[in-house]
Amino acid sequence: MLIAGKWVEKEEVIEVCNPQDNSLISTVPAASEEDMLLTIEGAKEGAKVAASMPVHQRMNILNKAAAYIDENLGEYAATIALEGSKTIREATAEVKRCIQTLRISAEEARRINGETIPFDQAEGSEDRVGYYYRFPIGIVAAITPFNDPLNLVAHKVGPAIASGNAIIVKPATVTPLSALLLAEAFEKAGLPSKVLSVITGKGSVIGDLLVTHPAIRMVSFTGGLETGEEIARKAGLKKISMELGSNSPVIVLNDADIEKAVESTVSGAFYAVGQNCLGVQRIYIEEDRYETFSSSFVNRVQQYQVGDKMLNTTDMGPMINETEAIRVERWVDEAIAMGARRLTGGKREGAFYPPTVLTDVPPDCTIARQEIFGPVVLLYPVSDLDSAIDQSNDVNYGLQAGIFTSNIDKAFEAIGKMDVGGIMINDSSDYRIDGMPFGGVKGSGLGREGVKFTIQEMTEPKVVSFKLAQKRSV
């Protein structure tokens, strides 16, 4: 692990296994509280160095890191696929997004601007002129999940470096290797020592110290709602940015292009084995098109190739571990026991859980209320758009949504009434680019990610006012 500017090994290690066959890939150090304290002390020095870096140096480092990853794309993609759930095709796409994220970060570094302030708008302040500029907050703690083990780390590291901060990354215990490879890229790019640390270890051992330490000025967390709420209670007086998932809805109206809606929502539901915070979980279809849509949707799902994630022909691999697959199996079985019908899907085999489609799902079962984070989608017939919107909003999440319609008025009705951070028209809920503001409402989180918007979160405005010897003349 990279702590306080040095690569550190320890006798106590955490095994990193391939969820496909549970084979050992590698080991990483199991950090202690002492390791975390050393990391934070190093980051204090790193923050001073980072703040003093001129913008052109930050840009150069970010672009060099992106170029290094591009040159070694195959290694990065294989690491993502081996330690996580993504197929090699999905992993390759993630590496390309990471490269783009770092390049956007380099561009946004030049646009951290302030504004002049007309102080003479206040009577008695005619002799004052000034402005504000944005300055880095200091040390950022980044806690990242397993489902995008490279690009979600880059979404925190890139903006932190662009804005002149030091950052400590605590990656998911099951997928730490991709984050360590990202640190290697920044080391090769010439990032000064101690600006970036990647510390591996169990959250139960080092997590509380990271989020509660007074030197940490911002906690950026991507993960589950319960953990997010716990962090918010413990963190104290510091900035908090959280993306906490969702159970995203998509609405399909009678005037929709059914073929395109099916293709988009199948991909949106089962990408990365459904372990995607934006993944399509609930689909509300107007009654006149319900049978056509559901039949076509199930047929397309049954064509999915599930198997070896390292093959280019595979559409879906295993979940992150067997424990998660058992949880999804339990939620599906509970829904069926309460009256739901399974339209397709089969038996779990280890960490593999097949793409599954349910209908007639009772509103009070777990799978209807919580984030599945697995390869299951729920289909609901609805009488009209109002009913679809009401049901879409009737959960404690609101990250993104989608609606398929050719009626612009209905599209704008959904835009105005759906309680989400983003709505995709004639697209799946899981559409995202790395330059847009990304985040949700209700239990889906606080603040916004996306490079430009993360930089805003990681900086503070400082006001400068000059009192002149005499009133300013125009």
Automatic annotation (TrEMBL):
Pfam families: Aldedh. Residues 7-464 form the Aldehyde dehydrogenase domain. The keyword Cytoplasm does not apply. It catalyses: (2S)-3-sulfolactaldehyde + NAD(+) + H2O = (2S)-3-sulfolactate + NADH + 2 H(+). SUPFAM superfamilies: ALDH-like (SSF53720). GO terms for molecular function: lactaldehyde dehydrogenase (NAD+) activity. This is 3-sulfolactaldehyde dehydrogenase. It comes from Bhargavaea cecembensis DSE10.
